[in-house]
């Protein structure tokens, strides 16, 4: 049965107190991960934390074990962890993302996350972030008349010039060329946007 953390449990989590390991596990609703009290991950927002007496109870509630603190007494398979990292990036691509932030939120070290993600996906986490952002940018370019600067912001790239450079590196076209080519295609096929 899950409960909200009491003050003693909150203190144990904030202090990464190993003395409480095995007494309870805390689960973070926003990340769907559960940890030991001693986990070195970023201190969670306690409004999103529930306490479980065992790892099995947290697993049964749909939470995944933390990779950093090995909360279930076993490691997540790398493929499952990478799937979780991908989901995290897919859900947060429009926010400013750094490797450290992704690693903190996905409960691993930046070095380990980078190595495992690259091994499993064949691309770096940053390359995947760019891929997701530019895929969404293509949709905006095709389906809206938003200025390129606004599209850049919507996909998480604050600098329009940087956005255009990245877009051209990945697609071999500038965003404007991509939009114009799509418009021509639509007109040639008898469609209008």
TrEMBL record:
Q: Give all residue intervals belonging to the HTH araC/xylS-type domain.
A: 83-181
Tell me the cofactors it needs.
Zn(2+)
InterPro entries hit by this protein: Ada-like_dom_sf, Ada_DNA_repair_Zn-bd, Homeodomain-like_sf, HTH_AraC, Me-P-triester_DNA_alkyl-Trfase, Tscrpt_reg_AraC-type_HTH
Keywords (alphabetical) are: Activator, DNA-binding, Methyltransferase, Transcription, Transcription regulation, Transferase
PANTHER family reported in the protein's UniProt record: ARAC-FAMILY TRANSCRIPTIONAL REGULATOR, HTH-TYPE TRANSCRIPTIONAL ACTIVATOR RHAS
Q: What is this protein called?
A: AraC family transcriptional regulator
